[in-house]
């Protein structure tokens, strides 16, 4: 399935559309949600809500400050001294690299305890040596380009530490989604790698309509020294640093012994918890159990939870029940929405990869900010079984001294040869931190009342996300049954039951998505860019212009549609067939009932419009990407409570799709196996939609929220564009629901 954005909540934990979101919490089912709290004050301005954030509510941005400079990394044994100096730039780039592998012929480069005669150069600004020891993210930012990789939605502030110990690597200016040529020139004493890249442009998830310029260079010397030079940088966020693989030397910190619990399953009965420091950089936590830990690859691990708590308060807790932890690290078994059942770690600073060996399960990570400078910490732990968040075992708190560990992140431009030497050193350049969605909703609802079904946020500032759009999340208020997802955690979002769904983060006013229309001269992109459809949409429009805020409607229509879709399955001839998950499968026939702007549209929630050629092939008349903005399918409208089951025509699912070419109009043709599906097949799995069409909600209200930093007022541009989106959203909703429901955007 092609990339989309969006998400749904599973007990308040985010799982994103297309490829799943993998931020600080990942897709950990049944995790109780920490209640939200206001992070600013709200007022109204016309029909808009203005949210002024508290000071430092989203932390501090750290934007790139090395343009026009060269960083020098000088080896000292297995470590490095670092300093910044005047720009050194080789204007002879050499040959453009066709792939990503470089083979040296005149010397081998010493790095991370080995000498390398070959390495991989990533298009997105990194160099990787050897084969990664850790698997790549199951939800990558894009296809592997040969360098390092992170999750699609991983904030750079967090992803920088996650690269540690994945493979020997150098991040020269690692920024996902960049593209363009890169060049290599080998000399007897050095190899020069140069990147000439652009940030992504023109798409709904981009921040610019036009190409940008980012030129930077790395020089790897025969003696092991490294130079990173930055000639011209339009981009302001990236990861820069060196990542030799750690030696693995460990210093024990403490062992927390547990009482035996013979009534608990052996893989959940913890004998002890061990803490140690790896190479002075990583904090390592190992659970040792009475019996072997359930192996990855087994669906039975889904929901198994091992969690360790750290309490840095001056008065250590005397029991786990009385404790209020500073932070927690969790290893959770996941089977749904991942390619293969596996354990994933989440929490501040923790690395994603969980290591399982025999009777042990291990997490490790960098020292979280909340523990830096703290000498004495209480640690305790708990274990939970699948399907029940209540722990089956708890380990009582024990105090230990947190020594011998440092933060590997540094402010690179201020380092001198007197600093270090460093085994690993990097800096993450990033925009403001992501807010918690529960905090956003609580800020609005506590300030203005529980009167909103949906909340959409727009801002004058950028968030630490490589895509301009936003995922979505919410408690699914309204107590709707039969959609595959249930109402949950109302209190965490500060609602009594009205509030349903929201954007996870504000959309930046300067992004493509907040532009009324593409600017004059914007390049024509692919069929996933609105510029591709300009002439078609202008010709079908009464005023000769494409409908305004097309990208914004794609995003809000899709995200708010996740309140109901796409999580259902169907039972056909005794077999349960998922129709998603998260989005309708590419092969699902999901033609829009009330098109928004074109005669033939596939659902905003995925699927396609398929023409049966009656020869075993099917022509894809509209694909599963949501540009231009589209409406909702009959199945969507049924799940929304706007049409009855009797009004949903039979549809079908295509499986085993094999491309066989295109027709004369450029539509893709596939061979596939067809399975007929009826709405009764869906009801057989999910039950009937309740409230039914005669009693369902028909009037909805969206809060359109403009978010500003502390002490700031919304710009004229932000107000104007948010108002434009507000009005278009009301029109979009009426059109795409066939006026069977109405939308307001009233803050009062």
Q: In what range is the share of β-strand residues?
A: 25-35%
Structural class: mainly beta
Tally of helical segments: 7
Distance between the ends: 41 Å
Helix content: under 10%
Outline the biggest β-sheet: 8 strands, mixed
Residue runs with pLDDT of under 50 for 5 or more positions: 1-31, 133-139
Number of domains: 3
**Shape designation:** globular
Mean pLDDT: 92
| DSSP strand count | 42
- Over the alpha carbons, how many angstroms does the gyration radius reach? 27 Å
Question: Could you characterize the architecture of this molecule?
Answer:
The protein is mainly beta and 748 residues long. It has three domains: 7-33 and 41-56 and 434-686, no CATH class; 69-245, no CATH class; 250-401, Immunoglobulin-like. It has seven helices and 42 strands. Strands 3, 4, 30, 31, 32, 33, 41 and 42 form an eight-stranded mixed sheet that branches. A hairpin with a 3-residue loop joins strand 20 (270-278) and strand 21 (282-289). The chain is globular, with a radius of gyration of 27 Å. Mean pLDDT is 92; it is low at 1-31 and 133-139.
List the helices and strands and how they pair.
Layout: E1 7-10, E2 13-16, E3 40-45, E4 48-53, E5 69-76, E6 79-86, E7 95-96, E8 101-103, E9 109-111, E10 114-116, E11 118-122, E12 126-128, H1 156-162, E13 169-174, E14 182-187, E15 190-197, E16 214-221, E17 226-233, E18 238-243, E19 250-257, E20 270-278, E21 282-289, E22 305-311, E23 327-334, E24 342-346, E25 355-357, E26 360-366, E27 376-384, E28 391-401, E29 425-429, H2 437-448, E30 454-459, E31 472-473, E32 501-503, E33 507-508, H3 534-539, H4 550-561, E34 569-572, E35 575-578, E36 584-589, E37 606-612, E38 617-622, H5 634-639, E39 651-662, E40 668-677, H6 679-686, E41 699-708, H7 716-736, E42 742-744
Parallel strand pairs: 4-41, 30-32, 30-33, 30-41, 36-37, 41-42
Antiparallel strand pairs: 1-2, 3-4, 5-6, 5-17, 7-14, 8-11, 9-10, 11-12, 12-13, 13-18, 14-15, 15-16, 16-17, 18-29, 19-20, 20-21, 21-26, 22-23, 22-27, 23-24, 25-26, 27-28, 31-32, 34-35, 37-38, 38-40, 39-40
